[in-house]
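Data card: per-record layout.
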Amino acid sequence: MKAKHSKILELMGAFILSWTTSVCAQEEHHMTTTDTPPQEAGITVGAGAHTDHGSKHGGVLGMVGDYHLELVNLATEFRLYLFDAFTKPISTAGLSGNLAYYAVERTGDKASVASETWLPLRPDPASEYLVAAKVPGPEPNEVTVVLQLRGEDLEMTFPL
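The structure for this 160-residue chain is written out next.
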């Protein structure tokens, strides 16, 4: 009787392992397939919101609340592009904020800030993005932006 229960448990374990591996492989396929829109892949999304997370200007794109922010790190300045939930550009006219960039040193599992520089963010003349001029110093590897958009306080940290 004991041998029979042992065999049943062994078969159940093999079935669960096989099923879990199959489900994980299917989920990985959906996560890594980029040529099929989510709706066609059978993934339900809210009317197209938050489905486009590709960089528009060669920067780092992130999401905070219902907004997408893209940070572009250029030689002499930082540019912050703002988008709505559908990644449609938002005018930066009348907006301002602050940007902090850090040179973070990592040793094993410990991190320390070697330098921190805060700069004001201002709209560019065409109101397409916010801009902060860099100052001489160590090259940053992390940037935090803080601004208010449509009455909402937004803060996001970007790895570079």
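Known properties of this structure: DSSP finds one helix and eight strands in the chain. The mean pLDDT is 77.

See the next section for split statistics.
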